[in-house]
């Protein structure tokens, strides 16, 4: 019985630790946005990352460098995206993270939606965001405090 408990405890600890490693670039992304920190923001993306938004007209591609440049022009605390990590799924060096969010601009609620992240574990062992797609809406929002 003690061996079963020890195995379950160890397995849970390993999964929790891996989840934290996977969450880190996602959480760092929003810290970087809030601090208008271009270097920190750039550090969370892989070199070939893709950034997209679902709009009423379809899927819009965004250039990562343009996104980073626009964030760097903001003042600290202008951009505040509050997330809840609802799900993390992994298979080897691939991870998927789903995060509903509320977005605040200069302290005022702007919109809400969901982010879907695909992360890839690099040869260095570090997780990087490879793909990010989000939705944006102003209705039916539950603000995240």
Instruction: Report, as a whole number of angstroms, the end-to-end distance.
Output: 43 Å
Helix and strand element order: HHEEHEEEEE
Helicity range: 25-40%
Instruction: Give the overall pLDDT as a whole number.
Output: 90
State the shape.
globular
Percentage of residues in strands: 35-45%
| Strands, total number | 7
What is the gyration radius calculated from CA atoms? Answer: 17 Å
Which CATH-level-2 architecture?
Answer: Roll
Structural class: alpha+beta
**How many strands, which pairing sense, and closed or not: the largest β-sheet?**
7 strands, mixed
What is the CATH T-level topology?
A: Nuclear Transport Factor 2, Chain: A
Query: How many structural domains can be distinguished in the coordinates?
Result: 1
Specify the CATH class: Alpha Beta
**DSSP helix count?**
3
Residue runs with pLDDT of under 50 for 5 or more positions:
5-16
Organism: Chryseobacterium nepalense
Protein name: Nuclear transport factor 2 family protein
Pfam families: Lumazine_bd_2
